Amino acid sequence: MKILLLNPPQTFFPGSDPPAANLPLGLLYVAAVLDKAGYKTEILDAFIADVPFRKIGDVTEVGMPYGRIKEEIQRRKPDIVGIANPFTCQVEHAIRVADIIKEIDPSILTVVGGPHVTVVPVEFLEAARNVDIAVIGEGEYAMLDIVRFFEGKKKIDDVQGIAHRRDKMVILNSPRPFNENLDELPFPAYHLVDMEQYLDPKRIEYRSFQKRALSMITSRGCPFNCNFCSVHLHMGKTFRAHSVDYVVAHIEHVVNKYHVKTIYFEDDNLTFDIKRFEAICDKIIEKDIKFQWETPNGVRADYLTLDLLKKMKKTGCQSVFVGIESGDQYVLDNIIGKSLKLKNVIKFAEMCKKIGLKTGAFYIIGFPGETKESMMNTVEFALMLKRKYDVGMHLLFATPSYGTRLYEECKTKGYIRGHLTPRAFAEVRQNWGLPLIETEEFTAMEVKEIASRAMKAYRKLSIINYIKHPRKTLKTALSQPSLVGKFIKNLQSA
Description:
By secondary structure, this protein is an alpha/beta fold. Helix content is 43%, strand content 17%. The strands form 4 sheets. It has a 7-stranded mixed beta sheet, with helices on both faces. It has a 6-stranded parallel beta sheet with strand order 11-14-15-16-17-18. Helix 14 (372-389) links the parallel strand 17 and strand 18. Helix 1 packs across helix 6 (140-151), helix 2 (66-76) crosses helix 3 (91-104) and helix 14 packs parallel to helix 17 (444-468). The N and C termini lie far apart (59 Å).
């Protein structure tokens, strides 16, 4: 038996940042479990493929053309194909790949997993007629059970955490309990992919300007309940984490074997257990492991102390991103449900400036219940943090992702503008896109105008900062040449 795990191509819409690759971590973890169980497993990353980008209308297709994907599947002759679908805006690619597989051989079992599928499994299978099974939640052991079902060693109804078909009906099986002991998982199956495609990319950068960089996840689950976030829907609310020894051994593995220079910790709550994370830092210092790291998903500003920030910097931390969401305390408390005090955010910014640690923050405007005044409070708070503490501003529009409380409220009250197509979900995340939410208090264009004015003011502050610190600016330009383009763009648009 042969299992093929496939990462589909992706579509980039006008205004998107340049295509950036990412290790298909979900597939690598699934592959590691299957490999450990003795099953022949291959990975086809059709997104990272070294082929020219294709312009189709006003969008750009990145990855293998479907004709070549078909040839690869025919050549590899898999019995089961597991397809990744990490983003709602890319779901059509997962469906198209499944269609191709069934064209080749209807007996091949097609399986799709990911956050989108987890949240709307029934609707997904109703739309994706050539997908046999949808995995709901964590996929490692669900996929192992699916393989055993295919072998005839397990009944389909006994496979927890999936949706499947029976007599043209979609059946939801019982939920699969979340894996409480993450240390049971082997390291991702790096050996099943060409790591140099990610560590020394030729066509698609690895999510940033850094070379020899990869992503790592050391924990799962989020105990908080922000109204816009769907993380707990597919990873649970209970915080689960790898042990200190496991994490440090994993870091040593990628640094020593693959000469990794930068690690992006993609956890949703990397520092939630402060004692655990401090112990990780202590062990890195003790073992003198040399690498740089960042927190692109963001951490909580109120879960960091000065001592911990100092240790983070000593272990190679280059920047700390935090999720602030709103600069209006009422919105945080009564609309988003963030459980965060803005005074603690300011304290965090002060500590980082004191020790010279670069910082950035995520903000969101356009929630139902907000007013234009509360959105301006967020903008003013973000600009204040930039002006006083040089905290980077990343301003986003509230997006009604499926399964969230925000989605349910917007759907019930009729606040969703237009249709929630894959393209709409992609465009709302672009600087030029329009929000998907309108209420009695604001229109999408009004929210857009607030964001545009905010970005213009932010760019001016950035230029002032560049001029005030020429030595720092030159050092950044030399070490991070791709940021020179951003600097020039700021000058042109300020």
